[in-house]
Amino acid sequence: xxxxxxxxxxxxxxxxxxxxxxxxxxxxxxxxxxxxxxxxxxxxxxxxxxxxxxxxxxxxxxxxxxxxxxxxxxxxxxxxxxxxxxxxxxxxxxxxxxxxxxxxxxxxxxxxxxxxxxxxxxxxxxxxxxxxxxxxxxxxxxxxxxxxxxxxxxxxxxxxxxxxxxxxxxxxxxxxxxxxxxxxxxxxxxxxxxxxxxxxxxxxxxxxxxxxxxxxxxxxxxxxxxxxxxxxxxxxxxxxxxxxxxxxxxxxxxxxxxxxxxxxxxxxxxxxxxxxxxxxxxxxxxxxxxxxxxxx
Length: 296
Prior knowledge:
Blueprint (H helix, E strand, L loop, with lengths): L1 H7 L5 H9 L29 E9 L4 H4 L4 E6 L12 H4 L5 E3 L1 H13 L5 E4 L5 H13 L6 E5 L5 H6 L6 E4 L8 H5 L4 H16 L3 E3 L2 E11 L8 H12 L4 E5 L20 H13 L3 E2 L2
Helix pairs in contact: 2-6, 5-6
């Protein structure tokens, strides 16, 4: 536990941060509850130990317009993932875990560097399995003057118990809603994805509410990403029904059309091609009919 204790010493709010670290070993951070003793050098499903592994960081101009602004979204891409999506476009990072380990102070320096470069926010990509050191780094960066909004950018397979500990630390939640029904067990190795995902999204919305945008930039709130898969394999209509009926009729959602067969997708005939324009359009039209806010 020495490595964990040393990193916690940097925090001025040790209660929540200590609890997040304790949930890392035995690991209960994500819904898999794998119980891996990460403090003993072991790794579980995500393949990452007690230190965050960073693939890259810097201004990103390809995110949603409400995140980019003039200076770009300040992204930090974390290696490892608690999902096993066969169509992952970043599988070298998520499943091959390419990157370099970073301690809390190094993560804080990255956040400060992004602020210094004029980024609009700190966008933490695929962070579910590393929220302990990440929150400690947010705390350290804030104590040194960093005031950018924090974006929680996840695959949407998040534990409500862990999310509750993040209240007050996250300004913008931006989870995927990958599946409204079916598909998840075969395509993402998570049979309970839809149930877990819906509970997580409700908790995120409870914390931050609908997306708030000022001067063209998101400041706080929930922004959902939904990737349209071919042959309706994502259960898109069920996702939109849930958002409109059980979260908020004004939920902001980015209906994404950029799916292409990557990684092992061509082994699965139902997703071995790109979605057609009609398949994407029917999802966008449904979202508009329900009054949801379309974000590009």
